[in-house]
Amino acid sequence: MEAKVLNGKELATKIKGELKLEVEELKRKNINPGLAVIIVGNDPASRVYVNAKKKACEEIGIQSFEYALDENISEEELIDLIHKLNKDDKVNGILVQLPLPKHINEDRVIFAIDINKDVDAFHPVNVGRLMIGDPQFLPCTPAGIMELIKESGIDVEGKECVVVGRSNIVGKPMAMLLLSKNGTVTVCHSKTKDIEEVCKRADILVVAVGRPEMVKGSYIKPGAVVIDVGVNRLENKKLVGDVEFESAKTIASTITPVPGGVGPMTIAMLMKNTVKAAKLKSQAQ
C-alpha cells in the first residue's frame, strides 16, 4: 500500500483563505498588516522565495514592502534600514532573506530586528521564548510542519519522533515543538552513529539536512509519518527532497512531497505571524 501524500499546497491555500478573511476584518478596524522583506544581492533561490512571499501577501491583502539591496551594501547600512523599519508604523513584520553575503554578520542583523516584528522568530529572545514554552511567534517551517502533522490526524503525544538535522532554522525548533506536544524526541546530525537505526525507530520522522535523497526507504519504520524539509536541485534540474520519495512512499503511512509539501506551509505561517504581529501591535496601543 502506498503512503498518503500530505498536500502542503492545499493546506496552505486553506490557511491563506482564513487569513484573508481575518485581514479584511482587521482593515475594517483600520489595522493594515504590513511585511517588509529585505533581500541582499541577487541569489536566484532567494529571489524565488521573496517573490513567493510577495505573491502570498497580495493574495491575503497584506501590504508588502520590498528592499532589494546591492550585495556590496555594508552591514551598517543594512542595520540602519532595519532600525528605520522597526520605527515604521506601516511595517508589522520584518524579514531578512538568508543567506547574506559573507561580509555581513547574520547574527548581528537578526539581533537588530524588533522582537515584536521578528516574524521569522530568529531573534534570540523569540528563540528563548520557544525554549521555555511561551512563544510569541513560531518559526515558520517547524510551525508549518506541525500544521501538516495535525491535518493528517496524527497525535504527536507519546510518539517516537526523530529529527534529522540540527539547524537553528528547522532542526532545533522542530524538536522543541514536537516536545511541546509530548513527543519523545531524538535529534540526529552528522556525528550520529548509525543514523539509519535511529531513523527506523521513528513514528514521526522529520528530515532537514539539505542532502538530496539521503534517507532511503530502508531508514523508515513501516507506517511512519515522513516529513521531508529538503529542497535540492539535481544536475538534471529536477527538484528532490532529503528523502528518496519513491522507496519511502511504499513503507511510510504518510509522506510529504517535494515540491508542494513543506515549502508552501512555510510561507503560509509567515503570513500568519505577520497578521499576529499586526494584532499584537493594535492591542498594545
Task: Explain what this protein looks like in three dimensions.
This protein has 285 residues and is α/β, with parallel strands linked by helices. It has 2 domains: 31-115, Leucine Dehydrogenase, chain A, domain 1 (Rossmann fold, 3-Layer(aba) Sandwich), CATH 3.40.50; 140-262, NAD(P)-binding Rossmann-like Domain (Rossmann fold). The protein is built from 10 helices and 11 strands. Strands 1-11-8-7-5-6 form a 6-stranded parallel β-sheet. A 3-stranded parallel β-sheet has the order 3-2-4, with helices on both faces. Helix 2 (44-60) crosses helix 10 (262-284), helix 6 crosses helix 7 (171-180) and helix 6 (140-151) crosses helix 10. The model has no long low-confidence stretch (mean pLDDT 96).
Instruction: Note the overall shape.
Output: globular
Query: What is the percentage of strand-forming residues?
Result: 15-25%
User: What's the helical proportion of residues?
Assistant: 40-55%
In spatial order, strands of the major sheet run 1-11-8-7-5-6
List the helices and strands in order. EHEHEHEHHHEHEHEEEEHEH
Low-confidence runs: none
Q: Look at the structure and name the CATH superfamily of the largest domain.
A: NAD(P)-binding Rossmann-like Domain
Q: Sheet with the most strands? A: 6 strands, parallel
Kindly report the oligomeric state of this protein. Answer: single chain
